Amino acid sequence: MSEQTTNTQRPDPAAAPSGDNGDWAIELEKINKSFGPVHANKDIDLKVKRGTIHGIVGENGAGKSTLMSILYGFYTADSGTIRVNGVPHAITDSRHALALGIGMVHQHFMLVDNMTVLENVVLGAEDSPLLNKTLAHARSQLVELGREYSLEVDPDALIENISVGQQQRVEILKALFRGADTLILDEPTGVLTPAEADHLFRVLETLRAEGKTVILITHKLREIMAITDEVSVMRGGEMVETLKTSETNPEELAELMVGRRVLLRVEKEPANPGDIVLEVENLSVTDRMGVQRVKSVSFSVRAGEIVGIAGVAGNGQTELLEAISGIADPTSGVVKIKGKPLDIRGDDGAARARRAGMAHVPEDRHRMGLVTTFEEWENSILGYETYPDYGKGMILDIAAAQKEAQRRIEMFDIRPDNIRLRTANFSGGNQQKIVLAREMDRELEVLVVGQPTRGVDIGAIEFIHKQIIKMRDAGKAVLLVSVELDEIRSLSDRILVMFDGHIVGEADPETANESELGMMMAGMNQKEAAQ
Amino acid sequence: MSVRRPLPRWADIVLLPAINLAMAFLISGMVVLMIGENPLEAVQVILYGAFGYGDGVGYTLYYATNFVFAGLAFAIAAHAGLFNIGGNGQAYVAGLGAILVGLALDQTHWLIVMPLAMLAAGAVGGFWALIPGYLQAKRGSHVVITTIMFNFIAAALMVYMVNRVLKPNNTMAPESETLDVMGRVPQLREFIPYFGYSPVNLTIVVAVAFLVLAYILIWHTKLGYQLRTLGQNPVASKYAGMSNSRLIMIAMTLSGACAGMIAINEVMGVQHRLVLDFVADAGFVGIAVALIGRNHPIGIGLAAILFGALYQGGQELQFVIPAVTREMIEVIQALIILFTGAMEGLFRPALERGFVLLSLEQKAEATARATVDSES
Fold first, then answer.
1. Which residues in chain A touch residue B235, judged by CB atoms under 8 angstroms apart?
2. Is the ipTM of this complex over 0.90?
3. Read out DSSP for B198-215?
4. Which B residues in the span 241-260 are in contact with A, Cβ-Cβ below 8 Å?
5. What domains lie within chain B, and their CATH numbers?
6. Residue A506 belongs to what H/E stretch?
7. pTM recorded for the entire structure
8. How far apart are CA B95 and CA B360, in angstroms?
9. B235 in contact with A at a CB cutoff of 8 Å?
10. Contacts of B366 in chain A (CB under 8 A)
């Protein structure tokens, strides 16, 4: 597609740099970008005022990332004009974007783990073949920047040894070190504790006070409301509207994002907990590197109850889920269903856990929950393929499996309703529904759910939450793990907080306040957090 | 920046292999031209030699029989995500099972000998593949490395077995005793005189049956579903509760057993005794056959006939046009393996771009559909 003409070089006489345009740090005009038949950006107009924090919200696939990648020079627009500080530019690559003062902090950090902070900051910005001069100069500048924007990081620490929050600071410092005036942040709080997120927002406010411009891409409406000055909503590759944050509210934004009214709050009746169904006793898990990830965890889940495990990603939740569901072997401990210990060890432990009535919606549907190269109906029997429902002997009863898949597609409103379509061609929300339908639509005792709405559109989130509550109301024990604190709080009947492999506290979602949970997630024990 | 989208299924299965083959033939033709011969004449000779008369057809089918087994052996393992390049060695040691059963029972009847020899050859070939399978499943040694090594071990073992154990005392030739006529797998020419003196034998029926069985195994059994899950996403198969290590060992055993059927064709059907290196690298050709055949039984059947024709037609070619030496034939075969195997993806990007350009006309429609989808 590179052969297609871009007319970004053509200066638009009507918008020649002049006094009145001085306000705009970034102006995008009629940006179009197609990937094959997919029109990812359609005639996008966006103006970002200098010295403001500008939010961009939209569902997955709305075109936010494509738009920012065009601004940062990853992609070239098929047509359209980009003006930086009123001057039209054809941004060809990220080096060019940096030279124009545009920096980007990616959702997945671009850092070299076994290099120091200082080395990462100068990486790609070395100004002489010998490093020592660059490093000395960078060191002093790093300290200065750190003080100015309260972004202190030890310049000699190795990236692999510092926290995720600090790694993000390094990414911001990298951009500032290269002289960025406009900073694009892509989903910056996904990996942060609430306290780290708060700190990030203070940093962003300092940046704004210093006259820098910040573009914040997020799907968390709360953050938009808390920090931005203006917010642009994208939907289906188009720019729907740009609003002043002070003149809008989350409900309106959600409606604009989805194109219809959505319930942000989950409606549920009070829980009716019954007998204990799932018991976990002194469970410990050590990963392949020999690091203990789960440290003697004990808890129980009753019938008709949702227990949520809150925590920042990477504090042992993944390993806990995998051990309970029989995928990874625990080093010690017992998992019981209705008092009966489960034999979850060994290569096929997951099969035994399933047969005992444990359904598992894994955290990562692409890596674990689905075979994306399979047709939809094939994924609808994954893990249950040996069951007599799909043929009594060795032969797979394809007709029965397909009939069931067709029924589930209707029951869970999976679109498109084509059981022969490759699973990779379904959207994230519909893929998640395929997994949920498979795991929920059968006899079960315990439902174990990890990150049920990660990368799922708002419309589908509502549906998925309802389904989980329906399982609870049907008297199943539900264990929910999510890094989205809002999700944990709105779905759970009881919250356990996990930090560094331990369960550090328990809270009632009705009464617990955010800062208390946040402090526990950051490793304080319950008493300290309550104070 | 270029746009890449996966090819439509038919283009992936038919068009791409066809383009690769055409390129291989084109370059082969240029090579023939360079040595001063007429490539069109060479094509004519190959086609006539492979399909033009009974003996030729018989030889083509005889070679194809070996390639079907070798191709299926590779494909079954490939569906489970395993790269079994030890088919050659597995077929070679399987000859041991075949000849021992054959020599023990050759006074009875081939209807008894053949099934038992198949079982024995399958068991030995399967066992030879199971060892690398076990090493990968339980010890993490990659089958690509171990199966190559096992080819060499097989070669050394067979030299020892033939010379020290199976060779009758009164002969000099490194080969086992010859089977009695009663125990040999019958030649097709006994029923169909059309095949002249060609060695195609009843094993070809087994090969066709194996193609059908492999299709059923891979797409219509629970085991096949599990093997494909393992091959496509081993994390998902673990999540599903399948025992990955068990599946790896099963896949390798089935693969080796399939390769072992080459021994039936060669030892029981053609040579009637165990000779050194009777596999003649058919196990390696099987990799190319499976690659061109996209690991699908129908494709493997067709690709096996293609390679059978090349082998037979190639022989004919060096006979008719002496300037085209045996080495030349090998060059042509190597070019085909190169284009369809090693450089299989060479034209994929260009083809993908072509399809994207073609589909731009349907863009409006597709966008409309995408919009509807995204609203779900």
1. 367-368
2. no
3. ---BTHHHHHHHHHHHHH
4. 241-246
5. 38-322 (1.10.3470)
6. strand A502-507
7. 0.79
8. 56
9. yes
10. 37-38
The Cα A491–Cα A317 span in angstroms is: 17
Distance separating alpha carbons of residues A113 and A162, to the nearest angstrom: 10
In a domain, A126, yes or no: yes
CB proximity B233 to A under 8 Å = yes
Contacts of B228 in chain A (CB under 8 A): 371, 374
Q: How far is B321 from chain A (nearest CA, A)?
A: 48
pLDDT of A347 higher than 60: yes
Convert the pLDDT of each residue in B105-156 to its tens digit.
Answer: 988 889 999 999 999 999 999 999 999 999 999 998 999 999 999 999 999 9
Given A137, A154, A172, the domain boundary residue is A172
Which residues are CB-neighbours of A517 under 8 A, at least 6 positions away?
A194, A310, A485, A489, A495, A497, A507, A529
Closest residue on chain B to A430 (Cα): B376
**10 Å Cβ neighbour count for B330?**
11
The residue behind tokens 């809002």 is A486
Instruction: Give the residue on A whose Cα is nearest the Cα of B235.
Output: A368
Residues paired with residue A281 on neighbouring β-strands, in sequence order: A334
d(CA B42, CA B302) in angstroms, rounded, equals 22
The last residue of a domain, from among A172, A202, A219? A172
Q: Would you call A394 and B222 a contact, using CB atoms and an 8 Å cutoff?
A: yes
Q: How far apart are CA A15 and CA A219, in angstroms?
A: 32
- What is the residue whose two structure tokens read 């300037």? B323
| Residue pLDDT, tens place only, A429-452 | 889 999 999 999 988 999 999 999
Q: Does B239 touch chain A (CB under 8 A)?
A: yes
Task: Give residue for tokens 């589930």.
Answer: A408
Record: contact A382-B244, CB cut-off 8 A: no
State the Cα–Cα distance between residues A339 and A321, nearest whole angstrom: 19
Structure tokens at B173: 């030739």
Lookup: tokens for A360: 């598992």
Interatomic CA distance for residues B167 and B33, integer angstroms: 47
Please state, as a whole number, how many other Cβ atoms lie within 10 Å of the Cβ of residue A127: 10
Q: Which of B264, B338, B344 is nearest to B7 (CA)?
A: B344
Counting the structural domains of chain A, the total is 3
A69 and A168 share one domain: no
> Hey, are the CB atoms on A38 and B221 less than 8 Å from each other?
no
Please report, for the domain that includes residue A506, its CATH number: 3.40.50.300
Query: pLDDT, tens digit, for every residue of A13-63?
Result: 444 344 444 588 999 999 998 876 678 889 999 999 999 999 998 876 678
